[in-house]
């Protein structure tokens, strides 16, 4: 049975993902070899193939792990016992912060998603759609309660917010003038202003 750590370091799957993320972000998915990933992670190819069936599986996991985190957090906000405005604002801000905290992952995804097989691409799109649908349900809940304007369809409101989120990797810089929380607050406030009755 393969060991999950090398005796004192981080678990091998985490090391592989960290190395792949860094290399995919720096060089691009198509210009990064499996050999470079295993060397950067300090493991063998056998270890990589024990945890991930291929380099493509690593690419899929780079994005899926962030989406799983975001989905878990969105579910918690959506299920909270709080007014709909607070739940939506918290969810809208959280997706911005978690995207910024995983900016390399977001950049890799949008640059390299076309490298995924049709089947893996479909899986990732399905996970993303589930997230967007839960987010849209919050907007619809507020619209049905009369708290949010229903002048703009909920789908368009979702696209508006996530267009901003998906674009973060092209302009946000950690050494820039705004913290992740400040950007998140501004974008969440813009979303709520767009929904005012």
From TrEMBL:
- Residue ranges forming the DNA-binding region read 33-52
| Superkingdom to which the source organism belongs | Bacteria
Q: Which InterPro entries match?
A: DNA-bd_HTH_TetR-type_CS (IPR023772), Homeodomain-like_sf (IPR009057), HTH-type_TetR-like_transc_reg (IPR050109), HTH_TetR (IPR001647), KstR2_TetR_C (IPR041490), Tet_transcr_reg_TetR-rel_C_sf (IPR036271)
Identification of the protein by name: TetR/AcrR family transcriptional regulator
The family database entries (Gene3D superfamilies) matched by this protein are listed as: Homeodomain-like, Tetracycline Repressor, domain 2
Record's keyword terms, sorted: DNA-binding, Repressor, Transcription, Transcription regulation
Tell me which residues make up the HTH tetR-type domain. 10-70
